[in-house]
Task: inverse folding
């Protein structure tokens, strides 16, 4: 008798494609966002739908700029993504490396989006190590030419005569 109860699933939980159980709402959202049978999904649309970029046009711009690679190859925005592909995205000063676990075409909530890929990205640098360079006191007025040159030197934007 005890073994019979172990095989029965709860009503509010269902099994997804991976065999894992999840709440009915997240599974329903992922199923609704899936492409129809055999339909492919563009890489710019996929990185937007799993929330790696803020807008789809930012995803397309990243692809055109060479910041998106699928399986080591630079891709155009219309490249079709498949399950198992490794997507590398340089965005916001860091590189995201994700493996496609589920292909979706519509933007979904963060918990569902996180289930659609495996994140192999290196951890972001700690915030303490990134010190703000050249922060002026509030109310100090407009910087002089000398102040501006010092700020540029601190930020690493100095011109040819930088010491």
Result:
């Amino acid at each position: 008798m005890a073994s019979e109860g172990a095989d029965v699933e709860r009503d509010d939980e269902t099994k997804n494609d991976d065999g894992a159980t999840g709440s009915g709402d997240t599974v329903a959202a992922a199923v609704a966002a899936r492409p129809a049978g055999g339909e492919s999904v563009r890489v710019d649309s996929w990185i937007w739908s799993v929330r790696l970029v803020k807008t789809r046009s930012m995803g397309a711009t990243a692809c055109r700029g060479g910041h998106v690679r699928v399986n080591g190859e630079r891709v155009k925005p219309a490249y079709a993504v498949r399950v198992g592909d490794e997507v590398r995205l340089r965005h916001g000063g860091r590189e995201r490396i994700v493996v496609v676990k589920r292909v979706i075409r519509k933007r979904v909530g963060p918990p569902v989006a996180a289930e659609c890929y495996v994140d192999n990205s290196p951890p972001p640098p700690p915030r303490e190590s990134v010190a703000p360079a050249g922060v002026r006191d509030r109310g100090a007025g407009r910087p002089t030419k000398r102040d501006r040159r010092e700020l540029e030197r601190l930020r690493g934007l100095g011109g040819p005569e930088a010491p």
About this structure: DSSP finds six helices and nine strands in the chain. Residues 145-155 form the longest helix (11 residues). The radius of gyration is 23 Å. The first strand starts at residue 13 and ends at 15.
